[in-house]
């Protein structure tokens, strides 16, 4: 029966292993074991952040407009304190938010200076399929970065442009919201095949209103 060769050196500090250490022990003690766990956790967070960055346009990840959010969708700082959409000091850069474990996920704060517009199509997806009314709007607009909302039933269409104020448009079962300032958007999963860049959409609110 094969036996496991005893490790002579600690995997973390490279110091000698204790005489009475188990044959399969990798670390010389609890301190090195905890240090190795922290390093693995940090590496995992960095890997996840890199994967997330690859799914989000650089126009967004390059700006320090990021927050975390709670289970009640309240914006949070990376240290767990409350964040505010009108307080830039409570926002962080993308890497800090992507590697944070505070709250449930990441969100991006819209400001009029950036000229980003988000068109939120509420209840636009059912059983994994985009509903006809929502598909008509998507098809009528320039190809752009689109993500699915965290609920799985909404779509966020991101553009460059301006709207004087946020708008909510409701018609029968259709619900569309347009935002560009003092609002944070929870980042969901990118819709496969959509560009990793934002299209220009002048008079976004007027264009959307004409399509609903």
Strand percentage, roughly? 15-25%
Q: pLDDT average, as an integer?
A: 88
- Mind telling me the C-alpha Rg? 23 Å
Q: Which residues sit in consecutive blocks of at least 5 with pLDDT less than 50?
A: none
Largest sheet: 7 strands, mixed
Helix content: 10-25%
Give the CA-CA distance, first to last residue: 73 Å
The number of helical runs is: 5
Total strands: the figure is 13
What coarse outline follows from CA principal-axis ratios? elongated
* Main structural class: alpha+beta
Order of helical and strand elements: HHEEHEEEEHEEEEEEEH
Could you walk me through the main structural features you see in this protein, from its secondary elements to its overall organization?
- This protein has about 210 residues and is an alpha+beta fold.
- The strands form three sheets. Strands 4, 7, 8, 9, 10, 12 and 13 form a seven-stranded mixed sheet that branches.
- The longest helix has 24 residues.
Topology:
Blueprint: H1 30-53, H2 58-61, E1 66-69, E2 75-76, H3 94-98, E3 105-110, E4 116-122, E5 125-126, E6 129-130, H4 132-140, E7 146-148, E8 155-160, E9 167-171, E10 174-179, E11 183-186, E12 189-190, E13 199-200, H5 204-211
């Amino acid at each position: 029966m094969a036996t496991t060769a005893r490790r002579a050196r600690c995997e973390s500090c490279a110091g000698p292993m204790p005489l009475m250490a188990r044959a399969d022990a990798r670390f010389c003690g609890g301190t090195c074991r905890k240090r190795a766990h922290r390093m693995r956790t940090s590496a995992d967070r960095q890997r996840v952040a890199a994967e997330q960055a690859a799914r989000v346009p650089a126009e967004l990840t390059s700006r320090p407009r990021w927050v975390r959010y709670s289970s009640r969708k309240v914006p949070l700082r990376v240290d767990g304190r409350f964040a505010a959409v009108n307080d830039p000091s409570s926002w962080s850069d993308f890497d800090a938010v992507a590697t944070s474990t505070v709250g449930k996920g990441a969100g991006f704060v819209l400001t009029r200076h950036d000229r980003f517009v988000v068109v939120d199509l509420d209840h636009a997806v059912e059983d994994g399929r985009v509903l006809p009314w929502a598909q008509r709007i998507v098809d009528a607009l320039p190809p752009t970065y689109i993500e699915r909302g965290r609920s799985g039933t909404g779509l966020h269409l991101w553009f460059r442009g301006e709207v004087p104020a946020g708008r909510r448009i409701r018609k029968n079962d259709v619900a569309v919201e347009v935002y560009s300032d003092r609002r944070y958007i929870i980042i969901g999963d990118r819709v496969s095949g959509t560009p990793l860049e934002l299209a220009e959409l002048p008079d976004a609110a007027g264009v959307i209103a004409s399509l609903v």
